[in-house]
Design a protein that fits this description.
single chain, alpha/beta, Rossmann fold, 7-stranded mixed β-sheet, 3-stranded antiparallel β-sheet, 13 helices
Length: 341
């Protein structure tokens, strides 16, 4: 019968028991007592095969923790680099002529125009920074700047709820000397339109200099941008229908808002509306018919207007309706003058 056996002669250099590493034969030192059977060590176990294949080492009993730490260490730099790369290179790509991609500018289809949003607005139309939006026409030394006694250039076309800027891009070559402004409430969509315009300017020198976009709420701050009788055309293409009756007050066309639109439009100016929702089309037409400062434009005149053709084909919503074979409802009215004006 064996007496007390030496553990070093029988036990292997290390072994696992219940997920814990034991090292009974570890050499002792002056500063550290020699380990005994049952002493726990959390030193990594050498696994040359796993290391050679590039697989991280994992301790028994700590699989979930080590895998979580490994996943975090691998994913954190990648996501951080991706986010910073998208933010830092967006403007560089636009200036190099590469159009932005919509998948990087995801946003809700619509926004609540009655909610409070925080963005800068000019105190008055005189405070609107034309040099920032139209540097070709207003930068010092540019050939397009008004000289002498010529009246200063002002925005003449306003695209209310411009979306991704399709109408602005379509109108720009038709009216190269007319300043146009898109007004959009969604911040990411506004950023997309900005990058799109910069990319078009970079790839087409001298073109698309007359269009720009601002993030604002036109239902609240339209008089902050335009003087009385400043605009000659206003566009309301495929606005949010707000189907519920309690939300009809959010619609961009109403008798109350038409007062402001009539203020900004010059006499003879035209307001263009189009939608694929019949109920909304009837609503907008009814509001325009009931307002004393607007009169319907005859169909004969609309057939000769080059802008009318773009109403259903230039915007993203219009193209989607055309692909699906949908029906559109158009209403075009002119600003008229009352006897007392």
């Amino acid at each position: 019968m064996l007496n007390r056996l030496d553990s070093a002669a029988i036990l292997p250099p290390f072994f696992f028991f219940n997920g814990i590493l034991y090292e009974p034969n570890r050499s002792s030192s002056a500063s550290k007592p020699p380990p005994t059977l049952g002493r726990v060590s959390f030193l990594p176990v050498p696994d040359r095969g796993r290391v050679a294949r590039g697989i991280p080492r994992r301790h028994p009993g700590n699989h979930s923790l080590s895998s979580a730490l490994t996943t975090a260490s691998q994913n954190r730099p990648r996501s951080t680099v991706a986010m910073s790369s998208n933010a830092d290179t967006a403007q560089a790509k636009s200036r190099s002529g590469r159009l932005p991609r919509k998948r990087f500018y995801r946003a809700r289809a619509h926004s609540n125009p009655l909610s409070d949003s925080h963005f800068p607005i000019p105190i008055s139309p005189a405070d609107f920074d034309y040099c920032h939006h139209y540097p070709y026409f207003f930068a010092p030394g540019s050939g397009g700047r008004s000289d002498g006694d010529a009246p200063p250039r002002k925005v003449r076309f306003a695209d209310i709820g411009c979306g991704f800027g399709g109408l602005l891009v379509g109108l720009s070559p038709l009216f190269p000397d007319t300043l146009m402004l898109g007004m959009e409430l969604r911040d990411k969509v506004t950023e997309y339109v900005k990058e799109r315009i910069l990319a078009l300017r970079a790839s087409n020198p001298g073109h698309y200099e007359n269009i720009s976009v601002v993030r604002t709420n036109s239902m609240k701050y339209l008089p902050n941008y335009f003087e009385k009788g400043q605009l000659s055309k206003m566009f309301f293409l495929f606005p949010d229908p707000h189907f519920k009756e309690k939300n009809h007050r959010r619609r961009v066309i109403s008798l109350q808002l038409l007062d402001e639109y009539a203020y900004a439009l010059e006499v003879g100016g035209i307001i263009y509306t189009i939608t694929d929702v019949e109920d909304l089309g009837d609503w907008m037409r009814s509001c325009l018919e009931d307002h004393p400062l607007f009169g319907a434009v005859p169909e004969e005149e609309l057939e000769l207007d080059p802008v009318v053709k773009l109403l259903s084909s230039a915007t993203e919503e219009g193209q989607k309706v055309a692909r699906n074979g949908g029906q559109t409802f158009r209403a075009v009215y002119r600003r008229i003058k009352l006897e007392e004006e």
